[in-house]
Amino acid sequence: MNFEVRELRAEDVPRITETYGGAAWHGGAKKWDQRLVEHAHGQRLVLLVVDGTDVLGYGSLLWVSGHAPFREAHIPEINDLVVAERCRNQGVATKLIHALEERARAARCPKIGVGVGLFKEYGAAQRLYVHLGYVPDGKGMASGGLPVAAGDKVLVDDDLVLWLVKELDASAKQ
pTM, whole model, 2 decimals? Predict the structure, then answer.
């Protein structure tokens, strides 16, 4: 597969919204128009993995994380990273994650973070992040952005996550 990673452009929005990427591929034109605005204003870096005009995956880097411990420590957050089902296990996510890490390094961020879901459908993502050097941030699970404490009852859904971090060594190229 021959693909490139590049920044989101206005002309990409219709292609993204028309792509069938599977159950995790979400968002209509309204979401992507908003992402384009956030990207243009420097709040969010949005990268696409493309093969010609075919969109294979997308992901973003929130420069100011919604996760309070990341926000307070100035750790940018990988957010909403999705690869079309037909393109999985072909290096697309790895290339996208490395590109996001490079952008964070270029911005002199010492760390980068991500929240990963805890149920079975996130198994491949969990393994990939660990393989790429991400480790739990030590603060435990969160649900809906709030810490989960012993004895709490929470819904096991996409909002139940474990937050992971990775040290970004500016001298190391991956």
Answer: 0.92
